[in-house]
C-alpha cells in the first residue's frame, strides 16, 4: 500500500467505531525519542522519516505537525500524499489541540493507542477537549501494517564498573534515598536508558541506542525488572539476581502495578509513562508525578565517566582527522558523494577495538543540503562532493569509554563572502559559550542567549536547540537540561552538553560547529560559585572560512589554543598525509 491507501484503510477502521480523529505520535510504550523500527508507526502512516512529529487523520484531513528542524524535509517527503504539513511554532498554524477543538464536534471521538501516548500528553489533551470522548485502547496501525519489522532479540551485556565508576547497588541506594525524601513507597521507571543506567547493563534493541526495552518497579526493599527474558544471558541473569534484582517477563509490569495495595504511594514521570501503564495502577494507590529520579542521577556524570569520555573523544578525533584528510583528496576527483562519505566515517570509527556502534545516523550535507538540519544522505540522490563550497558532517559513536557527538563544517574549495561571514558568525556563537563564566545553576535559557547574541546582532538566528545533554553509552540526547529558549533546567558541575550553534540558508548552505563539553567549576567568591564549559572534543575547527577581522582577541586566542591542543593530543596517533592534514588544520591564524 502507498501512503494514501494506508490513510484510506485507516479511515475504514475508524468508521467502524465512529472515530472522528486518530492521533499517531512519534513514540513507543517507553516514550522514547529514538524508536525501534517496530514502533515507527507515524513514519509508516505518513512517509515522513524525521525523528519528531505527530500525525492526525480525520475523515476529511491528514495532517503532520513537526518542528523547524524538519520543515524542508517534511515538505519533500509529504509531496504526493494527502498529508499536509503543520509547522509548529509558526504564527497562524493551529496546534494539534486547536485543530481538534475547531474540527471535532462536541461529543466526537478522538482515539489513540494508549500504550504509545504519555500521561502528560493525555492530560494536556483531556484538559482541552471538553465533552469530546477520548478513546485510548485503539491500535489501528497494527491492523494495517503488513510485514511489520520484528522487535530485536540481541543479548544484553554488562557495562563494567571501571567505565562508569558506580555499582548497581550504589545507584539503587542513592535512588531509594531520594524516594524516601519524596515519601514514596515505589517508583516506576519506563525509560530504557534510565534502567540500563541504573543496572549497568546495555543492549541492542534500538538502532544507535544501546538500550533494552524494559520496565522497572522499585520499592524500598525490592527491584523488579520486566524484560524479554530471552535477551538475558546466564551471565547477565546471574549478575542481576546476585544484586537482588528480580526478573519478570516484559508484560508482567501490568500485574505488578495492579498488585500494589492502596495504602502505598508510587512516584512516576508523566512524560515517560504511557496511559496504559498509568491505568493499570490500583485507583486507591496515591500517585506522585515528577521527573524520573534516575534522569537527574544519570545526567550528572561521575568523575570516572568524564575521564573515560575524554578518552573516547581522542579515539573519535583520530577517526575524524583521517576522514577529513581522505575527504579533501577525494573531493578533487569528483568520485565521492555524501553517502560514501558517511560510510567511510563509519568504517574509520569501527577500526577502534572499543567501538560499539554509531550514536546516530550521520548527517553529511554538501552545499545546499547542509541547510536541511537533520539531512541524511540516501542511496539515491546523494550529492556528488567536489572541491568547492562547504560540507557539514554531524556524527558520533558509542565506545566502551563513552558516547561522542560532533559537528564540523569544512571548506572544500572556494567560498563566497556570504559563506565566510556566516561561518564566522556561527564560530563566534560557539566561542561565546566556551569563553563564558556563568553562575552555578544558571538555566539553559540564559545560556542560549549567550550563544545567540553574535548572530542576533547580525539579524540572524537558528531554530534548533543550542545544546543537549549526552548520555554515557546510552542515548546521544539526554535530559533534562538543554541549552535552548524556554528551558529552565539548571546546569551544575559534571553535567555534559553539546554546544552546537548553526545557521541555515535554504537552497544555499548550512553551517554548524559542535563540541561536547562538561560543566566545570571556574571560581568562587563573595558573589557565589561560577562555572564554565570545558571541552571534551578535540577535532580541529576549520579556519579557512574565518574572517579574522570579525573575531576579537579572546576569540582568536581561544581558537588558536584549541587547534594547538588538537595537534598535541592527536598527532602521536597519525602519520603520512593524515598527519600533514592535521598540521595544516591546526596552524595558527
From TrEMBL:
Domain (Creatinase N-terminal): residue spans on this chain: 6-132
Keyword Hydrolase in record: yes
Sorted UniProt keywords: Hydrolase, Metal-binding
Domain Peptidase M24 C-terminal span(s) in chain numbering: 529-589
Pfam families per UniProt: Creatinase_N, Creatinase_N_2, Peptidase_M24, Peptidase_M24_C
InterPro entries: Creatin/AminoP/Spt16_N, Creatinase/aminopeptidase-like, Creatinase_N, Pept_M24, Pept_M24B, Peptidase_M24_C, X-Pro_aminopeptidase_P
Domain Peptidase M24, residue spans: 307-520
GO CC terms: cytoplasm
GO MF term (any one): metal ion binding
Family: Belongs to the peptidase M24B family.
Protein name: Creatinase
Biological source species: Anaerococcus tetradius ATCC 35098
